[in-house]
């Protein structure tokens, strides 16, 4: 059973929307509906030592550290921007790249596997996905137009390459899931799901091969969670997780891919482990305690594995 080992106050004036911890557990980063990003040092997480970043206007939907090989911190928000920062010699987080080419809120970001280089994907409510690549200290961008009708809500990279090509999965307001294959800066939809009858809220790709070579989980606004498995990324098998409960918000695989977490509206997180190709077993039902969250008014749509190294 998981338990809280530490907690601390932040200066956020509104709901916390996202959090992340860097690779070496040195920094804890939070973003908020007040438009402010806070960075804490994990060994002294008090509000007075926090670094505040206020380049966004409006809610900051997500923050994410890159692999330490690159040392970046990225964020996206309702102001339609993607911002990438890096620390200088004085320990200040300075903007090294900013993209404002989306026409609506940037909803989600994800760094590609570090062996592929410094690449970050950014989804938007304008229905497009932008892919940003660093080469020779210069950033270039390619775009997936019309990725999802009425907006893209979530994206996630696969750690597994297919024919030496990157794979990106996305979900949107068109109730569909799509898998994109990158080839020489071009992105082709190699798979498109049938209509899932509800908005796709979150997606998590398993970082390691399991009983299937490729596995990802999806969560929809009707509370249905599916685990998708395939050996070729073309033919997919769907297994529904916990169909009785319709209050699910977020899905996330652990770093080694052995456990799937499902965040509930009831301030609880369930952990699931695969037994065979058709069976998933619930391991835990009460990780998050409502009382510990009420006084902070935290958003329950959190990735618990973002806070576990």
TrEMBL record:
SUPFAM superfamilies: WD40 repeat-like. Gene3D superfamilies: YVTN repeat-like/Quinoprotein amine dehydrogenase. Its main location: other. Residues 73-159 form the Anaphase-promoting complex subunit 4-like WD40 domain. GO terms for biological process: COPII-coated vesicle budding; mRNA transport; protein import into nucleus. It is found in: Lysosome; Nucleus, Nuclear pore complex. GO terms for molecular function: structural molecule activity. WD repeats lie at residues 145-181. InterPro entries: Apc4-like_WD40_dom, Sec13/Seh1_fam, WD40/YVTN_repeat-like_dom_sf, WD40_repeat_dom_sf, WD40_rpt. Keywords: Lysosome, mRNA transport, Nuclear pore complex, Nucleus, Protein transport, Repeat, Translocation, Transport, WD repeat. GO terms for cellular component: COPII vesicle coat; lysosome; nuclear pore outer ring. Belongs to the WD repeat SEC13 family. This is Protein SEC13 homolog. It comes from Aphis craccivora (Cowpea aphid).
